[in-house]
Design a protein that fits this description.
two-stranded antiparallel sheet, alpha+beta
């Protein structure tokens, strides 16, 4: 795996606050040109997704619509990750 910046831990950014994913799960990140694994990214739990949606609804005009899109995307990614 490629080296990353020292002391760098990818986290979720929800409502302007950086935090770890609730469940602690991650997925591998691959370089698109080489296919080499270059890191791990936090996998948001349903609670993380709900927190992001709540923040979007409160902070952004049209946030309610964005919230629905975030839910759909998160559900799709979780199903794909589980092979459903």
């Amino acid at each position: 795996m490629a080296k990353t910046a020292p002391n760098f831990t990818p986290q979720l950014l929800i409502s302007g606050t950086s935090r770890a994913a609730e469940g602690g799960e991650t997925f591998d990140l691959y370089h698109p040109a080489t296919g080499a694994q270059i890191g791990k990214i936090p996998l948001a739990s349903p609670a993380d997704v709900n927190a992001a949606i709540a923040a979007a609804v409160l902070l952004a005009p049209g946030g309610f619509i964005l919230g629905g899109l975030l839910i759909a995307r998160a559900v799709k990614k979780r199903r794909e990750a589980k092979g459903e």
